[in-house]
């Protein structure tokens, strides 16, 4: 296994080149950087930066993990949310990670990569203009599981990484996330031999970060009862868990293609992050009916 690394000066040079390579597409990331190489697979971070951004800044950040059942998906899923948060002053990142269809991997590797991504961001926070103590993680469906697992579970770390650099995020923004991998939960047959360590629902403790959850009441993969149980278990440990339910909405209702619910969830995401000191002022997005 080969882990990506470079002397500090070379890293700074590469980052400066990439941050200057801004395209004209508003939906495109401002830069793409490599955070991990496994064999012939190079994994990258798609980075969105605010107006007036400098690499010497100390801005809050968020990294999103796409959905796709640990089998597929694309970082572009969270480009709209990332661009919006960048417009509000954060450094927003949409991460690549290994999936079964492209890399012949298991769900375990998804979480290994999630931890690697957050660790790399924190390790390079000074070069990225990021506050290492204000790094949130977010995601949808299986990507929501990856984000939650980086915060809640232990033992899914890539060999050879510097474990003295924490990979746990400081907050979670979860869209119809896979919480429960137990016998009655999602994907149990694929993680049966290690589900007790892998399932966020079964590993909540008093270090869990503040969390916001978005879920449609007609989600066929994540029952409302599961989200309510997760909220209850979090609160029993004295941890914050805001749950927003959307009547009649199915799995994936929050995506940009459903503009009404994209707007609603982004506004609540903004308010949540503002309550943590990541953003200032009121949301700049409005509900379509407003």
UniProtKB/TrEMBL annotation:
It comes from the Bacteria. GO terms for molecular function: hydrolase activity. It holds the Pfam family BD-FAE. Residues 199-265 form the Dienelactone hydrolase domain. Keywords: Hydrolase, Signal. Residues 46-159 form the BD-FAE-like domain. InterPro entries: AB_hydrolase_fold, BD-FAE-like_dom, Dienelactn_hydro, GDXG_lipolytic_enzyme. Residues 1-21 form the signal peptide. Belongs to the 'GDXG' lipolytic enzyme family. This is Alpha/beta hydrolase.
């Amino acid at each position: 296994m080969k882990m990506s690394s470079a002397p500090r000066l070379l890293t700074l040079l590469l980052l400066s080149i990439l941050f200057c390579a801004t395209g004209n597409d508003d939906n495109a990331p401002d830069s793409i950087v490599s955070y991990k190489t496994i064999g012939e697979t190079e994994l990258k971070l798609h980075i969105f930066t605010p107006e007036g951004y400098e690499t010497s800044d100390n801005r809050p950040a968020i990294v999103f993990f796409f959905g796709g059942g640990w089998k597929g998906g694309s970082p572009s899923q969270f480009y709209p949310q990332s661009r919006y948060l960048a417009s509000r002053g954060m450094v927003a990142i949409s991460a690549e990670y290994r999936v079964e269809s492209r890399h012949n991997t298991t769900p375990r590797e998804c979480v290994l990569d999630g931890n690697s991504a957050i660790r790399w961001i924190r390790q390079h926070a000074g070069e990225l203009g990021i506050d290492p103590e204000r790094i949130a993680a977010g995601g949808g469906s299986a990507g929501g599981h990856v984000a939650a697992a980086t915060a809640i579970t232990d033992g899914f770390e890539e060999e050879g990484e510097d474990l003295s650099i924490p990979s746990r995020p400081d907050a979670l923004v979860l869209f119809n996330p896979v919480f429960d991998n137990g016998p009655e939960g999602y994907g149990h047959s694929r993680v049966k031999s290690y589900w007790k360590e892998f399932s966020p629902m079964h590993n909540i403790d008093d270090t869990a970060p503040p969390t916001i959850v978005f879920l449609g009441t007609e989600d066929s993969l994540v029952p409302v009862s599961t989200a309510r149980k997760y909220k209850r278990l979090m609160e029993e440990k004295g941890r914050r868990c805001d749950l927003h339910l959307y009547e009649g909405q199915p799995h994936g209702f929050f995506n940009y293609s459903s503009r009404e619910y994209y707007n609603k969830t982004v506004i609540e995401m903004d308010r949540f992050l503002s309550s943590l000191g990541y953003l200032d002022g009121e949301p700049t997005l409005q509900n379509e009916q407003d």
